[in-house]
Amino acid sequence: MEERNMVRLSKRMSRHLRHAPQEIGLTPDPAGWVDLDAFVAALRVPRDHVLEVVERDNKQRYAVEDGRIRANQGHTIEVDLDLPATEPPAVLYHGTAERVVPEILDKGLRPMRRHAVHLSTAVDTARQVGGRHGRPAVLVVDAAAMQEAGHVFRVSANGVWLVDAVPPEFLSGL
User: Fold this and answer.
1) Which family does it belong to (predicted)?
2) Is the separation of the CB atoms in 27 and 35 below 8 Å?
3) What is the CATH number of domain 3-71?
4) Which residue from 99, 111, 122, 171 lies 20 to 30 Å from 27 (Cα-Cα)?
């Protein structure tokens, strides 16, 4: 499949697995899984195209298991990904647009429309994420101090670190 078609299909998959499954007549189970064949039929695309997106997606956004598919994180619909609390590395990173850094440093990171704040272990990944929203900026999260203060971290199947929020006292600029 051509790259632009992969991107287009991945965006459709993301929309319907993370945000709006009802638009195509699907109801995920509490963990976010839907039947793969029903998903393929609802999207009206070949099954092998969906599986190719899952396989080739560099961010590993999707999981396929036991004839089912789901997004690994980033939902705005209510799901319980059943991720265990995990000890984070001492430092994590968050990519954002440079224009919102002052507000974030003042108020902290909030999940906005999602269920959790997304963090990464790599500066380059955070910078890429921030670049989707404007001129990128990377914030440093003192994850060790957060955990010591009682904040719970989880890590998704594709390595994205999730936390409910990051108060401003645990943030600094890179």
Assistant:
1) Belongs to the KptA/TPT1 family.
2) no
3) 1.10.10.970
4) 111
